[in-house]
Specification:
This protein is α+β, with helices and mostly antiparallel strands. Helices cover 16% and strands 24% of the residues. A hairpin with a 4-residue loop joins strand 1 and strand 2. The longest helix is centred in the middle third of the chain and has 12 residues.
């Protein structure tokens, strides 16, 4: 819906490739309105520096639904991380190289 307020202001994706699979992780800067709706302070400088992993709650289906509108199904991220701002390289460009890489640990119990 183009009339609704933006939820995501900017976003970068990073692909984590492993021998058996690849995962896409999206690093998103949310609007102040979206942060307030989630009960997160609107001050982006108070977000945890490496970011906040979204594992559930109302925002996860919303982020996935927004992705469905923008990218192919195979490109929908497996994880979303809310960050205060996108990293800027020394050359002044946005890039995923400075983003923290998430590592999934396999549960070997059970």
């Amino acid at each position: 819906d183009t009339d609704s307020a933006p939820v995501v202001i900017s976003c970068l994706a990073k692909v984590l490739s492993r021998e058996d699979r690849s995962e896409i992780h999206a690093y998103c800067v949310l609007s102040d309105a979206a942060l307030n709706e989630l009960g997160i302070t609107s001050s982006k400088d108070k977000l945890p520096k490496p970011g906040m992993l979204i594992r559930g709650g109302a925002i996860l289906p919303l982020l996935r639904a927004r992705c469905v509108q923008m990218v192919k199904a195979a490109c929908i991220p497996t994880a979303f991380v809310i960050i205060p701002s996108l990293p800027i390289s020394p050359a002044g460009k946005q890039g995923s190289q400075q983003l923290l890489t998430l590592v999934w640990l396999e549960n070997e119990c059970g």
